[in-house]
């Protein structure tokens, strides 16, 4: 069953602008991850945030997690044309299970 | 460099054929997964395996089976392919632990005619 739901479904911005994608989920989690997928390819892990963390940074990426609202956001600063891809959030419930439940993704287009 | 490979990037099969999709990882991971990805539906888990010869059903196992005879290899089998199994199939692996990322293969785009 789907856990994460990304918003918006599609986003188009100019190069240099910031891109913000949101993810909401329904049940308790122990971590939330973001992945990127270039067209027709496999997914690549971007960043993981644990349930006891509120914010995490990696290069131009900033992820926030609000467990009280069951939501997360991914911010990409100073976007580049190479950031054009689909972005997925995935939730892990822990407790010995290594499964992740993926959302449907946000398709980001960065226009040069 | 860690790697997950899938046997084919593109595959075209006929309805009723038996189809084998192979996935190999070189990271000595215990856990391997098969997903299918369809437009508007995201990734859905078909089966996963947490050890050799062990398997668990995911969310959509109907019409599929799996085999894991060796730690590095996880096969997805479509016993009798149908047109509604036309999809992108993605394999992934991860080591044990609750905070580990999954590593994905490049995907196999299967078309069933």
Q: What is the oligomeric state here? A: heterodimer
Q: Outline the biggest β-sheet of chain A.
A: 6 strands, mixed
- Note the overall shape of chain A: globular
Order of helices and strands of chain A: EEEEEEEEEEE
Estimated helix fraction of chain B = under 10%
Instruction: Name the largest protein-protein interface in this structure.
Output: A-B, 29 and 30 residues
Summed over residues and divided by their number, the pLDDT of chain A gives a mean of: 92
Notable characteristics:
heterodimer; A: 112 residues; mainly beta; globular; B: 113 residues; seven-stranded mixed β-sheet; four-stranded antiparallel β-sheet; 0% helix
Write a brief caption for the model.
Chain A is mainly beta.
Structure description:
The complex is a heterodimer of chains A (112) and B (113). Chain A is mainly β. Chain A has strands at residues 5-7, 10-14, 19-24, 31-37, 43-50, 55-58, 61-66, 71-76, 85-92, 101-102, 106-111. Chain A is globular, with a radius of gyration of 13 Å. Chain B is globular, with a radius of gyration of 13 Å. Chain B starts with a strand and ends with a strand. Chain B contains no helices and 11 strands. In chain B, strands 2, 4, 5, 6, 9, 10 and 11 form a 7-stranded mixed beta sheet that branches. By secondary structure, chain B is mainly β. Chain A binds chain B through residues 1-2, 30-31, 33, 35, 40-45, 48, 50, 88, 90, 92, 94-105, and chain B through 4, 31, 33, 35, 40-43, 45, 48, 50, 58-59, 88, 90, 92, 94, 96-107, 109.
Which helices and strands, and how do they pair?
The complex is a heterodimer of chains A (112) and B (113).
Chain A (H helix, E strand, L loop, with lengths): L4 E3 L2 E5 L4 E6 L6 E7 L5 E8 L4 E4 L2 E6 L4 E6 L8 E8 L8 E2 L3 E6 L1
Parallel strand pairs in A: 2-11
Antiparallel strand pairs in A: 1-3, 3-8, 4-5, 4-9, 6-7, 7-8, 9-10, 9-11
Chain B lengths: L3 E3 L3 E4 L5 E7 L5 E8 L3 E10 L2 E4 L6 E7 L2 E6 L8 E8 L8 E2 L3 E5 L1
